[in-house]
Amino acid sequence: MAPLCSLLFNTAVIYLCLILKGVICKDTSAINKQIEQVYEYQDIANKIINFTTIGKGKGQVYTRLADFVDTFGSRIAGSKNLENAIDYMLNTMKKAGLENVHGENVTVPHWVRGNESATMLEPRHYKIAMMGLGSSIGTPEQGLTAEVLVVHSFDELTKKADQAKGKIVVFNQGYEGYPTSVAYRDYSAKETAKVGGVASLIRSVASFSIHSPHTGWQDYDDNIKKIPTACITVEDAEMLDRMANRGTKIVIRLKMDAKNLPPVTSRNTVAEIRGSKYPDEVVLISGHLDSWDVGQGAMDDGGGAFISWQALSIMQQLGLRPKRTVRAVLWTAEEVGLVGSQQYYQRHKVNISNYDFVMESDMGTFKPYGIQFKGSQDATAVMKEVVSLLSSINATTLSDDPEGGDVSFWIQNGVPGGSLLNENQRYFWFHHSDGDTMSVQSSYEMDLCVAVWTVVTYVIADLDEMLPR
Amino acid sequence: MAPLCSLLFNTAVIYLCLILKGVICKDTSAINKQIEQVYEYQDIANKIINFTTIGKGKGQVYTRLADFVDTFGSRIAGSKNLENAIDYMLNTMKKAGLENVHGENVTVPHWVRGNESATMLEPRHYKIAMMGLGSSIGTPEQGLTAEVLVVHSFDELTKKADQAKGKIVVFNQGYEGYPTSVAYRDYSAKETAKVGGVASLIRSVASFSIHSPHTGWQDYDDNIKKIPTACITVEDAEMLDRMANRGTKIVIRLKMDAKNLPPVTSRNTVAEIRGSKYPDEVVLISGHLDSWDVGQGAMDDGGGAFISWQALSIMQQLGLRPKRTVRAVLWTAEEVGLVGSQQYYQRHKVNISNYDFVMESDMGTFKPYGIQFKGSQDATAVMKEVVSLLSSINATTLSDDPEGGDVSFWIQNGVPGGSLLNENQRYFWFHHSDGDTMSVQSSYEMDLCVAVWTVVTYVIADLDEMLPR
After folding, report:
1. Does residue A361 have a pLDDT over 50?
2. A61-73 burial, b if ≥16 CB within 10 A, otherwise e?
């Protein structure tokens, strides 16, 4: 090797080593510094927890949510009722002195249920409890009367395709967990139409039932004929299945006035506590304000929306203003396909580098265990310390796989994201049914959720640096 | 003491001692003999248990009950449907070769629900889920519209008597166990009428709710004005309570077509296996065949009626004919006030000395633990040994305080009586609601109940002596 070459090589190696050292040391020290900074928040965390669970904030969120859902009831996208509820939230949050309170327009689907019924005419006269599925078309005015074919899966339907023509297909698909079984709510209509069926009735996607239908959105395929579709109770699906097993001929008359009207304008509801130092950097917390048109939407997702509002309210009441802006967004039109959050993402994604951390709570506000989190290894290390601040209320678990939902667009594009880990084993007992009311909520447990939501949000928003990506 | 006197005294003492000895020795030896005899039934008990739970009898009772309730649905007293169901049972049991199968006429009340609704008009329009209570009168055709007074107890109603005039009184009475809380279903109408209220709505008497109303019989007082009365869901009672607490004016329009029609003739359904040695002596097992006019009446009391039929069926299939007659009685019109069983008692009480043992199952046919029993100390000692024959299925518990119900008339008059001790903690989740369907029943658990019912019945009916009183 020539001397010049050797010199250049050695210099390059030295520089490379220095660069690598710089990267490694800088990273390690930055994360350690951030983790050490988190420790300093234990007093503030305790202050938030005490204020929320035994202090002046105790019971506030439950009372506020009860006032809200009792006043407005259910709030489906497209309804005047949802817009009135949004107006109420905007006015209430403005009056309370939150900052930058405003609505952001969203174009949303407008499906209306109308009157509906399913009557078994053979082997005996029986009124079947049912609910049309969101986006379903209606039946002819006189209803639609047809013999029933009962199946347990799409595979079975395919095998029995020659028996399906002209039939109402009943899916008694069992329950294998929501993410799996919801496919029958989503696709039963199009799969039934493919084989010539005239309507589909699915067993409600619920883990337990006391004769409640559980509605939800469903998806047509534009290339396949649209047919009416509804859910029935677990109990009736099982009865029809037993009847079919005995070889009994079953005839049902289905009547649905359901209509898909032109889209209307709704709003995402936004409120903030502006950051003291980096007001353009944002920690976003959220839940959705719309619900199905049954029950009160107290659990899905009144709870999630209201702990997000309440986190701002607690900071305000305690005079806590973090360095970064905390923004609560109460999404509209989640139930009809994440419509509000999707349009929000499209509008704001240009500023994605300013989004420090995004969260949604949409899987219950029962007893909290901690946070479900997705982020880099470094961000996870920091978050682990953040939830450790919640040891006095036993909510220190950091698990992976946050629900995503309305904030999934941000998480998929690299923003650290979280959701509320809580004791929600009974969530699908009530989900999308008349059973979703204040009676499933506990004031005490909601306070604990608020404490978790507020501590995590405030600390992340107040750290010197944004969470590492 | 004179010699004669002394002689007489000593003789008297000796006789008294002999008599006492005779009584004591005779009793003790008789009971011991009966207990020893019970031990000899372990092989037969095992045979019954095996046949019912893993043999040819496995699943029979569930299948039979499902066929029955799917075919007839709910079966309220006074309805044609109940009489059709009774005909079906008589025909089926005759065809199966059971003995002395017959109906015994009973005069029963004939209440019909008709259309009904409760609509909240203020503070917002909301359809309240409701069910009229049995025996309630209807409202005027155009309905009855009135402001609401919410109370939590009869005491509170008394205190607020001056606010009740012209109001619909809503009772949000909490749940303190069925025997206590059912008082509000029974008496809310008459207590409301006393203070000038125009109708009463009670919180359903249920230990858990997913927005289900739970109906049931209610009692007017002939000296107090009759007003319409209905149940609403736990959730809605709590909502109305919260609204009232806020000082919100609530107005409800109640519409009920309910009618009390003239009594009609129904039947208790009777079937037997005649005793081989003492055919006039009877072990009576029972459940009721009528139900409320909602749900399927699968739990209340299809299960109890069908394990009683099935006990006969199992004996028949195994060729077991006990010394005494085993009589299954499937009561009519239990739900409207133990009407069928009361008339049966009046007709048959002349033979009460021939009734060895009476049982009813009307509190669920879930996983059995044993028998609830009431009888003399001696009878209890014998029964304890009888249930010990059930150790292979862990159903050896003998507890006191049987439910009574339809067989209470016999028990109150000294006949040893029992009921099924079972894992019925969720019974009042489904009771008298649309949730009472086959979906709450388990084929496996019903087989276990049949095994308990059959072993206990057969052994008692086959002992050399009747149970001591």
Report:
1. yes
2. bbebbbbbbbebb
Q: From the list B126, B209, B242, which residue is nearest A73 (CB)?
A: B126
Residues A215-231 have a mean pLDDT of 98
Q: Where are the alpha helices (DSSP H) in B40-110?
A: 42-53, 60-72, 80-95
Instruction: Specify whether the CB–CB gap between A295 and A435 falls below 8 A.
Output: yes
Closest chain B residue by Cα to residue A439:
B235
Specify whether B334 is catalytic.
yes
CATH, range A115-257: 3.50.30.30
Quick check: A127 and A239 in contact, CB under 8 A? no
**Is B105 an interface residue toward A (CB < 8 Å)?**
no
Cβ within 8 Å, pair B209-A66: no
Cα dihedral sign, B273-B274-B275-B276: negative
Which part of chain B is CATH 3.50.30.30? 114-257
Q: What is the CATH number of domain A38-111+262-462?
A: 3.40.630.10
State whether residue A240 sits within 8 Å of chain B by CB.
no
CB-based contact A70 B239, cutoff 8 Å:
yes
CA distances from A280 to A105, A276, A326, A461 (A): 21, 10, 10, 11
Among candidate residues A238, A313, A267, A274, the one with its CA nearest the CA of residue A59: A313
Task: Determine contact: A211 vs chain B, CB below 8 A.
Answer: yes
User: What percent of chain A shows pLDDT beyond 70?
Assistant: 94
- Find the residue in B nearest to A233 (Cα): B435
Cα dihedral angle (A409, A410, A412, A416), rounded to 10 degrees?
A: -150
pTM of the full predicted structure? Answer: 0.94
Which residue numbers in chain B have pLDDT < 50?
1, 17-18, 21-22, 24-26
ipTM: 0.94
Cβ contacts of B123 on chain A, cutoff 8 Å: 71
A96 pLDDT more than 60:
yes
Place of tokens 């019903």: B446
Which residue is it, tokens 């109770």? A233
CATH 3.50.30.30 for the B114-257 domain, yes or no: yes
β-pairing, A368-374 vs A417-422, is: antiparallel
Q: What is the mean pLDDT of chain A?
A: 95
User: Is any Cβ of chain A less than 8 angstroms from the Cβ of B129?
Assistant: yes
How close is the nearest chain B Cα to the Cα of A104, in Å?
27
The partner residue sitting opposite B433, judged by closest CB among A210, A296, A430, is A210
Domain with CATH 3.40.630.10 in chain B: 38-111+262-462
* Residue B75 Cα, gap to closest chain A Cα (Å): 13
**Cβ–Cβ under 8 Å, residues B334 and B301:** yes
